[in-house]
C-alpha cells in the first residue's frame, strides 16, 4: 500500500510502499478515503511534538470504509462508512471506567504513536470507528473527531441550550466549528470575536449573529452593552490571559466561561476576586473529547 511515512524527525516525510497490514484481536482495517493534515502533523515534522515511534505513518484525521474485521470484533461489518477516532485509550483506568476517556493517562494517538492513516489502509481498534451517514462526505467526516468533537465536547459540557446567548472568542478552525454547532445544531444566539477581518467574515458565513472586532482590546464592553448585561456562556479558543479575561468579563452574572485554548502562560486576570464572587461567574476548562461526542445526536442532547 501507499503511505506517507516520517523516517526521522526534522526531515520531510516520504511516500513509501508497505505491506497491507492485518487487523488483530478487536481491530478493524479501514480503507482510507480521506485524511486531513492537522497543525500537530506539522509540529511532528518540525520536532515540536516528539515521537519515539519512527519510522511513523502520519495522519490522525481520517475516514473511510471498513475493509476487514479482526478476530473477536462484533457490531461492525466490512463495507461500512466510518470515521476514525484517533485517540486510543486503555478502557480500564478509573477515568475510562466512568467515560472520561479524555483523561485516560494511558492514551495514545494514531499517527503520533503507532501507524496513522496517511496510507491506503489503517488498523484501528474496533471501538475507535464510528459509522458515518451517507450524507456526510469522507473529507468532512475525516475532521469530525480531531476538529469538531473538541468544540462539541466543550459546548455539551457547558450545557448550552436553544436561545442562550454565547460569545465565541477566537474564530480559527475550532472557533468556527463551535459557531456552527452553537448556531445550526443548538439554535443559540452567537457573537463571534476575533482580531482578523477574514475570520470575522467567515464566522458570519457560518452563522454568527453578530461579530465583534477585538482590535480595540476590550470587546467585552461592547458584548455586555449589546446583550443588556452579558452573555450566558463564553468560549475561549485562543489560549491567552487577555482573551480569557475578556471572555469572562463578557458574561452576565452567573454566566459560564469555558477555556479550550491551550497555553503555558500563568493565569493572571486583572479583576478583583470579589468581582468573581459578586457576579457568580464560573470558569472551567475543556480538553479534547470523548467517544460519546462522536455518536450522532438529535437536535437536543444530554449535557454531560
Ligand atoms: Zn490534530
Ligand atoms: Zn484509560
Comma- or semicolon-separated keywords:
304 residues, alpha/beta, Quinone Oxidoreductase, Chain A, domain 1, Rossmann fold, 2 domains, 6-stranded parallel beta sheet, 5-stranded antiparallel beta sheet, elongated, binds zinc ion
Measured as a percent range, the helix fraction is 25-40%
Report, as a whole number of angstroms, the end-to-end distance: 41 Å
Tell how many strands the DSSP assignment holds: 16
Bound ions, cofactors and other small molecules, one mention each? zinc ion
Please, what is the oligomeric state?
Answer: single chain
Mean pLDDT: 93
Query: What is the name of the CATH architecture of the largest domain?
Result: 3-Layer(aba) Sandwich
CATH superfamily of the largest domain: NAD(P)-binding Rossmann-like Domain
What summary fits the major beta sheet? 6 strands, parallel
Order of helix and strand elements from N to C terminus: EEEHEEEEHEEEHHEHEHEHEHEHE
Count of folded domains: 2
Shape: elongated
Task: Tell me the fraction of residues in β-strands, as a range.
Answer: 25-35%
CATH class category of the largest domain? Alpha Beta
List the strand order in the largest sheet.
13-12-11-14-15-16
The residue ranges in which pLDDT falls below 50 over 5 or more consecutive positions are none
Rg (CA only):
21 Å
Number of helices: 9
